[in-house]
Amino acid sequence: MRLTRRLFAALAATTLIAAPALAADLQTVRDAGTIRIGMLVDFPPFGIQDASGNPGGYDADVAIALAEHLGVEAQIVPVTGPNRIPYLLSGQVDVLVASLGITAERAERVDFSIPYAGIAIGVYGGTDVAVAGPEDLAGKSISVARASTQDTGVTEVAPEGTEIRRFDDDASAVQALMSGQVQTIGLSNVVFSQIAGVAGDRFDKKFDLSSQVQGIAVAPDSDALLEEINAFVTEARTDGTLDAIHQEWLGEPLPEFVKTAE
Amino acid sequence: MYRFNFQPVFDNLDMLAYGAWLTVQLSFTAMAIGLIVSILGAVAKTSSIRPLRWIVDVYVEMIRNTPFLIQIFFIFFGLPALGISMSPNTAALVALVVNVGAYGTEIIRAGIESIPRGQIEAGRALALTPTQIFRYVVLKPALRNIYPSLTSQFIYLMLTSSVVSVISANDLAAAGADLNARTFASFEIYLVLTIMYFLLALGFSTLFGTLRRVFFNYPAGR
């Protein structure tokens, strides 16, 4: 079963090269009364599957809010990282609320809404550690997961005299921070939200290193639908809907860099 | 087909050489302190004071029956909760000493117990002081008897030291991992690392052979 589905996804992906993308029409969605939304279920806390197998997470709540905005039922279709764009382009889903990072390469294949979520890499540390920017890292210790985006980011900006401690994974790097072996850490806001739950307010963000915003994606030439989605995201970003969902799953309101991104 | 590319390795040989030097320093220091710990442990274990024997028994059994990885994690991440905080390199050294000390204690104890009572009595008959008896009549022949097991344990210690990079201590394996993260030439890097560790082991083994000839070069008593 699993194999046939994979095979089918692979076939769909290959035929896509030749076949034109199937645009989703707003009117068709409204007539059907349901919108098929593709989302990841293996990407906590954005997309998860709860104990009874139902999709949950930030993306799921956004998907449901989007369907509500459109006045239709949400039908959530689980997709995976590699097959999510093929699912969309072959018309098996109408939209993707699948933590799809907005990149120029992907924008050639799909149309992105304005950002509805984002992952930021930043430097975090004890509230009593005075670090306002990269230059303050001199003479301080910082832990990172070896070869991660934050390793690259920290190594790039750290001044002479920074003690960069590389661990095998985020978990060990976090452990080093929690046990006081390092003063600061390079981490994504997603992982930080998880440790904030354990460590309370002992740590806070010092500065951002880089960020990646995510958009809701539709197949090309679905302009009417995209317009509605953009209207939804704009509204949800300002009226607190996304803040509330973000607070629930990531422990903080929607970050400023997502709200201001176009 | 996989295309070998040793360029990243050759370009960064100085980095790997420095890592190897750190591994030599770390292992050598751990061996030296570990030897002292082992001798003290073995003396305690063969002493007539019972509580002392029990303490050493607990230490030896605890260390020999738990993985080194857990021990080093405990020392680096766990001890700060008790207010004992060490730099990664110090924590690595402490972990290695504690580990090799437990194995060394058992090895040297076996050596001490292999000394026939008659030999000690002969020492007494020659009016040697207890310190002299321990040093020349017990310890030296004991070390000579168990020399091969002890040195192979020391070489194993050097190889084990390759895991200290999990607590971000600096050594040859950490240098390799950092280089790998930058260049992605995994196979080439780990092949060179394997050769370097082999040469280090060979070097230590030669050193131990020389030490044996210098210190234990006298005819066997039995």
Automatic annotation (TrEMBL), chain A:
Signal peptide: 1-23
Superkingdom classification of source: Bacteria
Domain Solute-binding protein family 3/N-terminal, residue spans: 34-253
Keyword terms: Signal
Organism taxonomic ancestry: Bacteria, Pseudomonadati, Pseudomonadota, Alphaproteobacteria, Rhodobacterales
SMART domains reported for this sequence: PBPb
Gene3D superfamilies: Periplasmic binding protein-like II
Name of this chain's protein: Transporter substrate-binding domain-containing protein
InterPro entries referenced in this protein's UniProt entry, alphabetically: Solute-binding_3/MltF_N
Keyword Transmembrane assigned: no
UniProtKB/TrEMBL annotation, chain B:
The entry's keywords: Amino-acid transport, Cell membrane, Membrane, Transmembrane, Transmembrane helix, Transport
Molecular function terms, GO-annotated: transmembrane transporter activity
Keyword check for Transmembrane helix: yes
Places the protein is found: Cell inner membrane; Cell membrane
Transmembrane segments: 20-44, 65-84, 154-177, 189-211
One GO-annotated biological process of the protein: amino acid transport
Assembly with partners or alone: The complex is composed of two ATP-binding proteins (GltL), two transmembrane proteins (GltJ and GltK) and a solute-binding protein (GltI).
Function per UniProt: Part of the ABC transporter complex GltIJKL involved in glutamate and aspartate uptake. Probably responsible for the translocation of the substrate across the membrane.
Protein's recorded name: Glutamate/aspartate import permease protein GltK
